[in-house]
Amino acid sequence: MEGKFFSWISCSVILSLAVMIGIATPGAEAQRAFFVFGDSLVDNGNNNYLATTARADSPPYGIDYPTHRPTGRFSNGRNIPDLISESLGAEPTLPYLAPELTGENLLVGANFASAGIGILNDTGIQFINIIRITQQLQFFQQYQQRVAALIGEGQAQRLVNGALVLITLGGNDFVNNYYLVPFSARSRQYSLPDYVVYLISEYRKILIRLYELGARRVLVTGTGPLGCVPAELAMRSRNGECAEDLQRAAGLFNPQLVQMINGLNSEIGSNVFVAANAQQMSLGFINNPQAYGFVTSKVACCGQGPYNGLGLCTVASNLCPNRDIYAFWDPFHPSERANRFIVRQILTGDTRYMNPMNLSTILALDART
Ligand SMILES: *[C@@H]1O[C@H](CO)[C@@H](O)[C@H](O)[C@H]1NC(C)=O
Ligand SMILES: *[C@@H]1O[C@H](CO)[C@@H](O)[C@H](O)[C@H]1NC(C)=O
């Protein structure tokens, strides 16, 4: 009797467990992994683990993050990948170098980005120890071996093929290379139009490598409005207008990126790569900050000197009391609220912003397959 009773109980426990798993499974399947590559716009804290000067691991960075502590993100709060994770219904990606990135956490994805890097190996050399893009891709390969050891090779492959990928490169190849110093070696080597052609051809190789490593949905951002950031207003602008040379660079780079991506997709025969025009996405709040609830798009919240655009954002800098009314958090990086406007366009923007389609279309398409 007693035995039977217990076996009935364990039976129903197993049954209800099965029901719970049955209910949980569609949710678990909908959860896709997310991988992030690139520079400080998307670094979630890898540089905290490196001997480099390109870091955001001390206050007031992170002041509006849920923990109100610095995390290594170059933002007062969340950055672009965090907000994409949020729209996927996922946890933020952990930095690849974070010790917590083990076991189940690996299945969420990983963030390989490192502040200061660019398309070219010699971009950001002044930051010394940063994870250049080739190394980020090698880490991605290593990550896949670790996941395969956890869930098997076939499942690992499926996780990577089904993932969303974000890659953000290019800004530093201008700011921390071509225009780093007047008459830089690069600017003597290449005219600006030739340099852009060279960058695009190198970016193409990086994207092909990502494809070879299993990426099948890749958001590729071009450069933002390089000449309009407070740092450039402080260093290069006349009367607070966006610096002409950097605007010209972004204006050459972004359309050629779209062309290159269209070419790659037609060679592959599938829309693997999607271009996100960050310059266009920022134009609205830069030209008309009040319409977006910002008091300014010229002055950084945290910094010093003209436009708070000089030097680093540190505990000794000027700090605005309300970060939500500033488009720029520090001399180079948007505030969380500006990042939200950017991610909104990534999700729902038309072809002026997203080519050949936006993220909500991607998510709807991929949910059907
Ligand atoms: C950058 O370095 C990697 C690895 O050291 C190398 O494979 C690649 O060709 C280099 N890229 C350029 C543009 O020199
Ligand atoms: C972008 O997303 C919206 C839905 O939010 C959709 O109506 C629109 O057609 C999409 N545009 C493109 C180019 O994919």
Automatic annotation (TrEMBL):
One of its GO terms (biological process) is lipid catabolic process. Residues 1-30 form the signal peptide. The keyword Transport does not apply. Keywords: Hydrolase, Lipid degradation, Lipid metabolism, Signal. InterPro entries: GDSL (IPR001087), GDSL_Est/Lipase (IPR051058), SGNH_hydro_sf (IPR036514), SGNH_plant_lipase-like (IPR035669). The keyword Hydrolase applies. One of its GO terms (molecular function) is hydrolase activity, acting on ester bonds. Belongs to the 'GDSL' lipolytic enzyme family. This is GDSL esterase/lipase At5g33370-like. It comes from Rhodamnia argentea.
